[in-house]
Amino acid sequence: MPSNVRSRARERNSVLSRPEFMSLNHQPLCGGGPTESRGSSRRLGQLKHQTSQQSEEPTDRGSKDRRESNKMPEEDCMQLNPSFKGIAMNSLLAIDICLSKRMGVCAYTSSSWGGCRSMVALLALTGHGITWIIGTIVCLTRSNTLAGQEVLVNLLLALILDVMTVAGVQRLVKRRGPWEMTPSFLDCVAMDLYSFPAAHASRAAMVSKFLLSHLVLAVPLRILLVLWAFLVGMSRVLLGKHHLTDMVCGFALGMLHFSLMETVWLSSNTCQTLISISTLSWSPFF
């Protein structure tokens, strides 16, 4: 019997000394073999390598994960299920861009209507802000009637208002044209750098309405004036400078400028005072 007890105790000790039962012993075994020490050192090396890789990950990835975890589920639902208004607006913008690109037949000399580019550019030049401002000033210096000077001064102020307003809206929206083109020198001078709204269309609509209201013209001339305004707006679309919606909004903005100028119309005396100040011939004390 004592021999059987001793043999059982030796078997129990041999079983507990195996590597898979090392965690069951409260006291560490001092007589571990070389294979056990080699395996434990390998496991420690792997743990250290994993922790070093985790510490070397970039911080921006962690911040991105935190942003994704903090994102509300409602935002994902809004992106996956857009509203009808958003779908309609995106569809209209896509149609506008597609039609504007197809209508830009004079955008480059290699385009389908590239041979007419110079003629279309000349037509667009007739609606440029610099052209109209310089022409109005020249006519004002050669006008001898009070009524003509009154109309020309108000027209000059309307042109300045149009240039400043369109430039401000373009700076605010910063919409690019359908074709990537650098603005010309005259466009930079007139601050016509972006696409929305079309400055030429706004100016043409305002000038044509202004002349139709304050000049006595025959019916053929009135029809030609309206046709000129429409062709000036279309010329910028054919040149690839503006979208169709830019042209339409430009026409609407030009009519708004005309209505505003009619509201604040300057009288003949005020116009004469402004002319005297500008020519340095005003003498209020004499």
Secondary structure topology:
Layout: H1 2-16, H2 34-55, H3 59-70, H4 73-80, H5 84-103, H6 117-125, H7 129-141, H8 146-173, H9 185-189, H10 199-214, H11 219-238, H12 244-263, H13 268-278
Helix pairs in contact: 6-11, 7-8, 8-10, 8-12, 8-13, 10-11, 10-12, 11-12
Give a short overview.
The protein is an all-alpha fold. It contains 13 helices and no strands. The longest helix is centred in the middle third of the chain and has 28 residues, at 146-173.
What sort of overall outline do the alpha carbons produce when their principal axes are compared?
A: elongated
- The computed structural class is mainly alpha
Task: Spell out the helices and strands N to C.
Answer: HHHHHHHHHHHHH
Largest beta-sheet details:
none
The percentage of residues in β strands lies in: under 5%
Helix content: 55-70%
| N- and C-termini, Cα separation | 144 Å
By DSSP (H or I, 4+ residues per run), the number of helices equals 13
Low-confidence stretches: 27-38, 72-78, 282-286
Mean pLDDT: 79
- The beta-strand count equals 0
> What Rg is obtained from the alpha carbons, in whole angstroms?
40 Å
